[in-house]
Amino acid sequence: MIFRIFTVFVLGLFGTAIPIHAEESKPLGIRLEHYEYPFPVEFFNFTAQKQSLEMAYMDVRPAKANGEVVLLLHGKNFCGAYWERTAKDLAERGYRVIIPDQIGFGKSSKPENYHYTFHSLASHTKQLLDELGAEKPHVLGHSMGGMIATRYALMFPSETRSLILENPIGLEDWKTMVPYPGIDQWYEKELQTDADSIRKYQQESYYDGQWKPEYDPWVEILAGIASSEDYPRVAWNQALTYDMIFTQPVVYEFPLVKVPTLLIIGQRDRTALGKASVPEEISAKMGLYPELGKKAAEAIPNSTLVELEGIGHLPHIESYGKFITPLVDFLDR
């Protein structure tokens, strides 16, 4: 059962929060124990950094396989569940679709002590694919998932069929513009609640204008986690991943990408980590996706840029038709 959350505050990309008003209130658990995913969930068990970890994943098999695999990597404020429609359509076209929750997210382990790097997350994901016998995937990453996807393609170029980046973060190096906040400050922000700023941010950056019912689940999931008894552990993991994003940019390595690449860039997106903590004259120059998308396409060899006018940070939820058409054209080429 998918529960609705009543007046719970949810933390967003800038450590602020949004109230969700709905019919009933129930915590979903820090591993979303009480939230049902759209496809059967399995777990990949492995050991890393002297601890046992579980990576949740969905393996969506097509009725008539074309022999190719698509790996879908979620963003920081999301889990694998938001790929439901994308996975169904790709499976109908013959693709096997694998959707992991990264460590620290969704139904995967929330370790108390873990050193997050994009290298380690990409390595864990590769281990999962090897375990499943899923060879040479097309790797699609949204938001933070785009940074993982880029790292995956850089680490395993001969075992990556193509790279697709949907409004990835990390197209600029924020630590050159924003004072380093430190993990403790990220953590304190994760524990704060600020109702107005995050709703304003989501409406402007994610969707703009009228809020639609289909947007609710991606806030309610975070609300259900935030209302769980062990939420501080999740907040700590979130703080560690903020630090990873801030200190480990991939933008400088775009020229080293060796696989065909598609960039799908919503032009209204203005996402930038730490933008709220710098003067307006600096923040106004951050997160300019129309410019950043072009620069990334110029830097990445053999890349194609698709610009989605009027669309924000979340094209596959806000405007699915505009997202899926260039994606399948690229995959089926």
Number of alpha- plus pi-helical segments: 11
Secondary-structure element string: EEEEEHEHEHEHHHHEHHEHH
Q: Work out the strand percent.
A: 15-25%
Strand order of the largest sheet: 3-4-6-5-7-8-9-10
Task: Tally the beta strands.
Answer: 10
**Structural class of the helices, strands and pairings?**
alpha/beta
CATH architecture: 3-Layer(aba) Sandwich
For the largest beta-sheet, the strand count, sense and barrel status come to: 8 strands, mixed
CATH homologous superfamily placement: Alpha/Beta hydrolase fold, catalytic domain
What is the count of structural domains?
A: 1
Rg measurement, Å? 18 Å
What kind of assembly state do the chains in view correspond to?
A: single chain
Shape: globular
Unreliable sequence segments: 1-25
Mean of residue pLDDT values? 90
Measured distance between first and last alpha carbons:
39 Å
Do you know the CATH topology?
Rossmann fold
CATH class: Alpha Beta
Q: What fraction, in percent, of the residue positions are helical?
A: 25-40%
Sequence-ordered SSE layout with sheet pairings:
Elements: E1 8-11, E2 17-20, E3 42-48, E4 51-60, E5 69-73, H1 84-92, E6 96-100, H2 118-132, E7 138-143, H3 144-155, E8 162-168, H4 183-190, H5 195-207, H6 217-226, H7 231-247, E9 261-266, H8 280-283, H9 289-299, E10 303-308, H10 315-318, H11 320-331
Parallel strand pairs: 5-6, 5-7, 7-8, 8-9, 9-10
Antiparallel strand pairs: 1-2, 3-4, 4-6
